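User: Is it possible to get a 3D structure for a protein together with its bound compound? The compound here is magnesium ion. I've pasted both below.
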Amino acid sequence: MKTLADLIFDNRFARLGDDFSTSVMPEPIDEPRLVVASPSAMALLDLDPAEADSEVFAKLFSGNTLWSDAEPRAMVYSGHQFGSYNPRLGDGRGLLLGEVRNDAGEHWDLHLKGAGMTPYSRMGDGRAVLRSSIREFLASEHLHALGIPSSRALCVTGSSTPVWREKQETAAMVLRVAPSHVRFGHFEYFYYTRQHEQLKRLGEHVLASHFPGCLAEDEPWLAMFREVVERNAELIARWQAYGFCHGVMNTDNMSILGITFDYGPYAFLDDFDANHICNHSDDAGRYSFSNQVPIAQWNLAALAQALTPYIDVEPLRDSLALFLPLYQAHYLDLMRKRLGFTLAEEGDDALIQRLLQLMQQGGAVDYTLFFRHLGEQPAEAAVRHVRDDFVDLPAFDAWAADYCARSAREPGSADARRQRMHAVNPLYVLRNYLAQQAIEAAEQGDDAPVRELHRVLSQPFTEQPGMEKYAQRPPEWGKHLEISCSS
Ligand code: AMP
Ligand code: MG
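Assistant: Yes, that's possible. Here is the predicted structure of the complex:
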């Protein structure tokens, strides 16, 4: 176990030089306080969890002090925002502090979001507010616990520094940890500015650092693109299976590693609604829940375009065509597990589609609790438990009869089945209203609710005594919360 002072830096991205990022010092926030830390994210760096209590911890992660080996840089990228190309984005308020090499030899980016102005701040103030920092922290760690690949969050520090959004708020910083912060938009930037030499260096960096297996292939770049397609197909399948809406799937928010990245006005579905739009500035519903699948493919096509100087168009097209079938296979696999099926049967897909149609008819089918209750045994009792939430009861009864018959063909005891289903169907999920309540307490200086929510959501599949309030259906007001897009 290490102390903060023991961390070893090896800043590979910084060494790419000034065409890729700009050296910028963090601008400290005042009276920093640690709001919440994640022991499991600290473990990625071999950090002793007790380090979170040290005085230097909040100072480091609020820009008030820095390791001598850190090399803070703002990265340049561009991207397609709501379908339109924006030629210059970049880290407008976040800094890559450096890359830490842990004892296992893994590199982890430390990225401090809310660290002040950079050459890419455009009209922004370089800051992040407490509310959005807590939301990013909670989601990063919860998605990871659900088995959904995500950038991680090590901590949130709050401050007394005022920040103006719709009203006066306070500045905060969130320390993100990920193997890389390279986005699709990094490749687009060098492609559209015709800096093909830099595009090549970026690709070689990403290949060597993050896709070393592809280097042995005949066409490493193509192999890398194919792997990006595969990882995204699996990622989006997990989002759809667990009811996660990202909300801002711009290509600058898409990680080259296929991890969930850049959290904004995201939401987990409460009542199931395939057309749910969690981003209130998304008038056309471009990033609605069900659109996440075609949009991911659209984003991969935008990445493919940026790779055309180094990969032929035909193989790029062929690789892109793998996305949908791969997505469908992963999704079917995940949903089978959620329904308690270990065997693969022909009619499973149709059974799943019928279920989603029944949920879509309205009523009050809480997407998370439905699957949790379905894990009760026997199946006949489980379907009775969830029945009243559906509108078309005769149709539901027909589905339930087919489901029970299908379940009866599964091997194993009722106990094993309950355990198997509870291990993939969370009891606790990060509902917007839960985050909102914890945020309001933190805004009043009480961080205990954020810490408790984080603890509960880090073990979403395990029933935790005394934590029943986090496993309830949302109150009516909680279902219709408008999450501010300003952050
Ligand atoms: P986001 O919507 O958070 O993905 O950000 C899109 C772009 O706007 C990125 O280039 C961000 O760095 C930049 N940005 C967002 N908020 C701010 C801010 N308050 N100050 C400076 N840049 C910002
Ligand atoms: Mg972003």
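Residues 252-253, 262 surround magnesium ion (ligand 2) (CB under 6 Å). The radius of gyration is 23 Å.
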